[in-house]
Structure formats: structure tokens, C-alpha cells
Amino acid sequence: AKEESTVNVNDGSIDDKLIEFNLFQSRIHEMLSKADKAIEGNRLDEASTWLDACEMVRQSCPSFDFPMAKLLLKLAKTKGEDDLFSFQRLLYEEIQTDLEE
Questions:
Q1: CA distance 72 to 90
Q2: How crowded is residue 52: how many other Cβ atoms within 10 Å of its Cβ?
Q3: In the chain, N or C: fewer CB atoms in 10 Å?
Q4: What is the DSSP letter of 9?
Q5: pLDDT tens for residues 40-73?
Q6: Is 50 exposed, middle or buried (0-12, 13-18, 19+ CB in 10 A)?
Q7: What angle do CA 48, 69, 55 make, to 5 degrees?
Q8: Nearest Cα to Cα of residue 25 among 59, 54, 56
């Protein structure tokens, strides 16, 4: 008798990738949360390090976008930056992008 070969389309690989994506996303949100807590605790160098790491992820994975502008503005205010316009502009653009999606 001739054996029929079947291909199981749902071999778990799509589910595994979705799980991996969700874990990656939760790690990014954890990094953002750590940055926020560092700002709140006035650990500004630590906050900058977390936000720099998030920016590196954003540049490496341009299709994976996450909000950072609010934290960047918060950090700049906490540092006592004189010119907040560029940070405010980034936040405005981020909000506009969210509204368009």
C-alpha cells in the first residue's frame, strides 16, 4: 500500500514564534519600567542606560515600535535640561503616529 505523506502546517513553529515575540515584547516593557523607576528614584544614569538599550532594540528591530518619548521627556525634565522642545516634539510625533494607526 502506498503511504500518504502529510505535512502538518501547524507544527507549533508559528505558536513558538508568537510566544517568543510576546516574551520579547514583555522584556522591552520591563526595560521601560526599569527606566521609569530609575527616573523616579533619581538614578538618572541608570535610566539613561535603560533608555539607550531600548533605543538600540528599536534601531535593530524597526518594525517593533514601542513608546519611549514620554520617558525621554521625563528624564530630560528631571535632569533639568533647559531646552525641552525636541523631547516635546518627539512625544507629539509619537502620539500622532499612535492616532494614525
A1: 9
A2: 11
A3: N
A4: S
A5: 999 999 999 999 999 999 999 887 778 899 999 9
A6: buried
A7: 50
A8: 54
